[in-house]
Amino acid sequence: MRAQPPSTRCGGRTDLGWGHDLEGAFAAHRAHGLRPARVAIEHRGAYTILEPGPGGPCEGLAAVSGRFRYGTTRPADYPAVGDWVAIDGDTSANSATIHAVLPRRTAFSRLAAGLRTEAQVVAANVDVVFVAMGLDGDFNLRRLERYLAVAWGSGARPVVLLTKADACPDVEGMRIAASATAPGVEVLAVSAVSGQGLGVVAARVGLGTTAAVLGSSGVGKSTLINALLGRSVLATAAVRDDDRGRHSSCFPLAG
């Protein structure tokens, strides 16, 4: 299915995580008249990007150039969500072209489908990864260990979130058990219903910080993100009797 052009919006939060370290990496691209942008959503054959501007980021669709496509052989070399890319063209008209991907600080990878075993980057340049585990039946220390291994392997800093704390009669006991499994990692109990812990979580995501939420289906990731943002931007779904959430399609909006 082709990506639908977003409603182009220029304005809002200006700090997308661009830093002085990226200036040096981008110098050669700037000399060729290219501009920096960040990948927000990956579609099939296209990307939603956010281009920094004086009035805030401008959102639009972009595609990789023909030279990039023919010169790239590994899936991991293609743009991923969170990547900074070098573009030209008109972002506001959904006609920008991606010519290069800047070096990544961190990366979440998975094996790409195909005849060869190759890594594919699914998210890049994440600073903090919130590992979410529900206290309503999802709590599993072995699963927590696996998620933490993925988080540490990406290069990002993990923080464990014990979600749905309002549904658990022994939150502190669960927090102690999780802390023993995750030495050196901050463990927070949160509830999107009561608001418990949301302020502490928000404080971990300062201006220019990129965060990701990792957890099993139905753990309350979308509900948590909506609560932190103070508005509904991600679709949520009911949880089945077996504690597995129904999958929902959504189109995140930058703000």
Strand content range:
25-35%
CATH superfamily of the largest domain: Nucleic acid-binding proteins
What is the CATH topology descriptor of the largest domain?
OB fold (Dihydrolipoamide Acetyltransferase, E2P)
Radius of gyration: 19 Å
How would you characterize the largest beta sheet?
5 strands, mixed, barrel
Q: What is the count of β-strands?
A: 11
Order of helices and strands: HEEEHEEEEEHEHEHEH
Rounded average pLDDT: 85
Strands across the major sheet, in which order? 1-2-3-5-4
User: What's the number of domains?
Assistant: 2
What's the multimeric state? single chain
Cα shape: elongated
In whole angstroms, how far apart are the ends? 25 Å
CATH architectural grouping of the largest domain? Beta Barrel
In which range does the helix fraction lie?
10-25%
Low-confidence residue ranges = 238-255
Number of helices: 6
Structural class: alpha/beta
CATH class categorisation of the largest domain: Mainly Beta
